[in-house]
Amino acid sequence: MGVAVRPTAPRRWFRLSIPLVIFALLLLYLSARSLGARSGCGLGAQACVPGGTAPFQVRQESGPLEAPERKEPPCLGPRGMLGRMMRPFHASLNPEGDVGLSPYLAGWRALVEFLTPLGSVFAFASREAFTTVTALEARVHGPDAEHYLSLVAMAAWERRAGLLERPGEAPRDPARSSGSRTLLLLHRALRWSQLCLHRVATGALGGPDAGAQCSDAYGAALGPHHPWLVRQAARLAFLAFPGRRRLLELACPGTTEAEARAALARAAGTLEDVYNRTQGLLAERSLLQLA
């Protein structure tokens, strides 16, 4: 009598295929095209700003936390990871109420550097953000650089030159997106990063873990722009998110938990300031519907 052979190969292939499917879905979810899949909504705690609705800004929520009195931790200094991110973003908020594009993009590059080690979800996000930052930098430093000094100057010139997309119409070639549309994609991703970092910094002991909080931030900032399948893939990815303690160690090494929380909350507050000003400028110019 022959011995039956168990059909292990198909099962093994199925088990190996699951991570590949999730990987592919995450690449889709973090692509610039999927970031612009729907139009008409700005993002925030109550995120949608449909056409005709008065501009709004998100509620300021990233106030400093209390920490033991001591000198500023190294992570907030000129050589610290958070400090290198906060300074250019803060510098982008010029006194005229505009957003300078060159320091804004420098801040984004530092933010990408900070996010990459924080886990697979952030690695995907930061990779896509790097591509988007590079695309806008090509305009800021290109032949029309004089028109790309600030958000206001860029939006005015692209409107006069007929470079703006029609609301809700994604360009066939993403590389040819207007600078205003490219900035909108970064603007949405900035909101997700800010919400996630703020919630990691301020989450109560015994409350939701960092993965759940950053998943909620995704639902508030990016989920409304993504199809159902992409949202499900994102939720799966957040199950493997690193814990709060690990995130705080990476954000501000060599400090106590209270000091790391306070430093991360300050960084999130800077991102929130930039988001709020950018949100207002985009809304005033009806640019939130570009993607």
TrEMBL record:
An example Gene Ontology CC term for this record: cytosol
GO MF annotation terms: ceramide 1-phosphate binding; ceramide 1-phosphate transfer activity
Pfam families according to UniProt: GLTP
Domain of life: Eukaryota
This protein's UniProt keywords: Signal
The keyword Signal is assigned to this record: yes
InterPro entries documented for this protein: GLTP_sf, Glycolipid_transfer_prot_dom
Name under which the protein is recorded: Glycolipid transfer protein domain-containing protein 2 isoform X1
Lineage of producing organism: Eukaryota, Metazoa, Chordata, Craniata, Vertebrata
